[in-house]
Amino acid sequence: MIHELLRLLICAVLDANSKTRFAIRPNAQAECSFSERIIYRLMKEDNPHHLSTLIPHHSTSANSLPRVLLFDIDGTLIRAARRPEYRGLIHGMLTDIFGTCGRIAEVDFAGRTDLSIYREALECEGITMQVIRERLPLIEKRMVEILHSLSETGTVFYLCRGVRELLDAIQNEAEKFLPSLLTGNVESLAEAKLRHVDIWHYFKGRGAFGSDDENRDHLPAIAAERLSEHSGLAIAPEQFIIIGDTPRDIACARHFGAKVLAVATGVHSVEQLSACAPDAVLKDLNDTEQVLNLLNEI
């Protein structure tokens, strides 16, 4: 009986407050009204194990919260200016750390996490994922050193067309969009790459990276958990838009339940990406107004 009365009470409070679009979470009480905090404490004292059934989870919407934009990096935001040289140094790094680079020259990097790339390259030499993870801090350190070394002699990566203009526009619409990252790069390398092209400062919160999980399909949930914790709100999957250049970006969005904007600025064409049924597909991000309109519509 007490549970039903509390449910009716909290529904009345939430319905009376049209601005409340989120479930009350323990770490977000500062965002709630006084009456909502009282209800939360009463419910917690009555039976903390039933909070999830007593609190109605109002889904977020584009009108109440910013859409979370999860950008891929390679092929979406940046392209390599010296790919053969860069790849050659990666081969040398793996050889230094593992005694072999395995079949790294045969591995397709597009849309892959770094962990999955290293596994495919090295498992033929009997090197397990456990060993790769143990040496991951050294890999990250060496990869960042490679980038810094190359950058002393010229450009290593360059921005894809329209990226800076789009990020400027998104920054000017902070009430609509929260830009973050979902990339196969290990975290420290992702930061180093984006600092190299001077766009790291545009991204808010902490998304998900190739050092978090080998399987790219698992990355959106990791990003969602971090960004929900960062904001104090339970953000629904449909509030996320993944922006990427490969079928794997589309697949991971579908796996999580997010929207997806595909861009043909990597190795896949508009036709190839369209065949994977994204919510929208563009040849590039050059038309800022068009991109913003799509992000508002999907």
**H and E order:** HHHEEHHHHEHEHHEHEHEH
Number of strands: 7
Going across the biggest sheet, name each strand in turn: 4-1-5-6-7
What coarse outline follows from CA principal-axis ratios? globular
**N- to C-terminal distance:** 42 Å
- The averaged pLDDT comes out at 83
The whole-angstrom Rg is 22 Å
Percent of residues in β-strands: 5-15%
Number of helices: 13
Structural class of the helix and strand makeup? Answer: alpha/beta
What are the segments in which pLDDT stays under 50 over at least 5 consecutive residues? Answer: 1-62
Percent of residues in helical segments?
Answer: 40-55%
Sheet having the most strands? 5 strands, parallel
**Assembly type:** single chain
Folded structure, characterized:
- The protein is of the alpha/beta class and 298 residues long.
- 46% of the residues lie in helices and 10% in strands.
- The protein is built from 13 helices and seven strands.
- The strands form two sheets. It has a five-stranded parallel beta sheet, with helices on both faces. The protein has a two-stranded antiparallel ribbon with strand order 2-3.
- α1 runs antiparallel to α2 and α7 packs parallel to α9.
- It is globular and about 55 Å long.
